[in-house]
Specification:
The complex is a heterodimer of chains A (about 375) and B (about 70). Chain A has about 375 residues and is an alpha+beta fold. Chain A folds into two domains: about 220 residues, Naphthalene 1,2-dioxygenase Alpha Subunit, Chain A, domain 1 (Alpha-Beta Complex), CATH 3.90.380.10; about 100 residues, Rieske [2Fe-2S] iron-sulphur domain (Rieske Iron-sulfur Protein), CATH 2.102.10. In chain A, about 25% of the residues lie in helices and about 25% in strands. In chain A, strands 11, 12, 13, 14, 15, 16, 17 and 18 form an eight-stranded antiparallel beta sheet that branches. Chain A has a seven-stranded antiparallel beta sheet with strand order 1-10-9-4-3-2-5, with no helix packed on it. In chain A, α2 packs across α10 and α5 packs antiparallel against α10. The longest helix of chain A has 22 residues. The two termini of chain A are about 30 Å apart. Helix content of chain B is about 75%, strand content about 0%. In chain B, α2 runs antiparallel to α3 and α3 runs antiparallel to α4. Classes of the chains: A alpha+beta (about 375), B mainly alpha (about 70). At the A-B interface, β6 of A face α3 of B.
Chain lengths: ~375, ~70
């Protein structure tokens, strides 16, 4: 049996771009390191969990398993979206096992303890004996559903499981400011504007590929016909996000000349610009004059990830045919990436691979992500070896 | 087995929660025993709570009056 390395040498990852190597192989294959990154990278930061459109109406509840944790996206009767641990405070029974509408209260299927859609414990039947629903030892005020810190931005539901990250608006201040022009109602395109791609790779490889434009002419030749490599620029915000932009975004046009409506009040630069950014750790975002998208990467294991893709528009009513074409176009692009990210995953089993080198000219955004992951792990390891 | 018991079992089997609210409330009304009445009222309240049925407030109030439940 192979010994499980809980510490890896990250010094080469943290070198300047020109000398840096990628994260070591074990960070893509080793269950123990996957567990370490779960805490250091995903739980200690603001990670994407889902989207508001998953629970569009008051009372909507959607159970989600995130890194093994049973969670519940729940929109209360006033429309506020919260995230809770999807378990009863009594014996830890899972409360909601399928998406549904909560008409009144959530009733645990085991002993029928009941919770409001705000997470408050509202009944503990027979807790003091048959027909006696109170007991001095049971303080309902202390036994509401366990809430997970959450925030909704760009319709993505972000969670900070550890509760230790800076407030979302502070942690994401740079990106929120960069895309302030898109901070307005985003209208999910509906069932035809969401799809999932299950990929056999570590979630980080999907990020690494998304961050750079270097691969576009080789992997997406269709895009390259109008959006050439030299039309792209790097987006590099060390410690927070990175990605790429294009200066030649071209709107989709229907046979009758129809196009999606633009978001109101955009600067003229967005007439032809589009940007694609990874908000670390696991959310891939794209903005254009007439639509945005969000991809939440759900890590399911060291070598398994589900990409949840959602497309949004400036207006609630959009042309169905055009919307379907847009979804199909993006699906084609994201599917073209699968052989690459799965190929890199298989490559991570090559004994002796040193994490790879980066193009000093083209891979800056990807290296920033490696560097950030390494920094999170170093912080975590310092904290957990101090005592 | 009484007709009410049979109806309760059938409603449980069918997961007919609106019927359970009504049937448990009826069971509570039919017994003179306070403990049994509170037991049935509790069930009526729980299923009404789950449904968002406003009768849950009536059942709760009755249980609170008996010292068996907390007011919201």
């Amino acid at each position: 049996m192979t010994m499980i390395p809980l510490t890896t040498d990250l010094t080469r990852v943290r070198r300047p771009l020109e000398q840096a190597h990628g994260l070591p192989n074990a960070h893509y294959t080793d269950p123990a390191l996957f567990a370490q990154e779960r805490q250091a990278v995903l739980f200690d930061n603001w990670a994407g969990l889902g989207v508001g459109a998953d629970v569009p109406e008051a009372g909507d509840a959607r159970p989600v398993t995130f890194l093994g944790m049973p969670l519940l996206l729940l929109r209360d009767s006033t429309g506020t979206l919260r995230v809770f641990q999807n378990i009863c405070r009594h014996r830890g029974m899972v409360l909601v096992d399928a998406p549904r509408k909560i008409e009144g209260a959530i009733r645990c299927p085991y002993h029928s303890w009941c919770y409001s859609t705000q997470g408050k414990l509202v009944s503990t039947p027979h807790v003091g004996g048959p027909g006696r629903n109170t007991h001095a030892g049971i303080d309902r005020a202390l036994l509401g559903l366990i809430e997970v810190r959450s925030h909704v931005w760009m319709d993505v539901v972000w969670i900070n499981v550890s509760g230790t990250a800076a407030p979302f608006a502070q942690a994401r201040a740079d990106l929120i400011a960069r895309w302030a022009e898109f901070d307005k109602p985003l209208h999910h395109g509906g069932p035809d504007s969401r799809f999932e791609l299950a990929v056999n790779c570590n979630w980080k490889l999907a990020v690494e590929n998304y961050c750079e434009s270097y691969h576009l002419p080789w992997v997406h030749p269709g895009l390259n016909s109008y959006s050439r490599l030299e039309d792209h620029y790097h987006i590099e915000a060390a410690g927070s996000y990175s990605g790429q932009g294009t200066q030649v975004y071209r709107q989709l046009t229907g046979a009758d000349g129809a196009q999606f409506a633009d978001f109101d009040g955009l600067d003229a630069k967005w007439d032809t610009a589009a940007e694609y950014i990874t908000a670390y750790p696991n959310v891939l975002l794209g903005v254009h004059r007439d639509h945005t998208f969000a991809i939440v990467l759900v890590p399911e294991g060291p070598e398994r990830t589900v990409e949840q893709v959602h497309l949004y528009y400036a207006q609630p009513d959009t042309d169905a045919d055009l919307r379907a074409r847009n979804t199909a176009q993006w699906k084609d692009v994201f599917e073209e990436d699968i052989f690459v990210i799965e190929g890199m995953q298989r490559g991570r089993h090559a004994v002796g691979f040193d994490g790879g080198r980066f193009s000093p000219a083209m891979d800056g955004p990807t290296h920033l992500f490696h560097d950030w992951v390494a920094a999170q792990l170093e912080r975590h390891r310092r904290t957990h070896s101090a005592g | 087995m009484s007709t009410l018991d049979a109806a309760l079992l059938a409603a449980h089997a069918a997961q007919d929660h609106p019927a359970l609210v009504t049937l448990y409330a009826r069971a509570a009304a039919q017994t003179a025993d306070a403990d049994a009445a509170c037991f049935y009222l509790t069930h009526a309240m729980v299923f009404a709570l789950e449904l968002g049925d406003p009768r849950s407030e009536v059942f709760r109030a009755a249980l609170v009056a008996q010292g068996r439940e907390e007011a919201l």
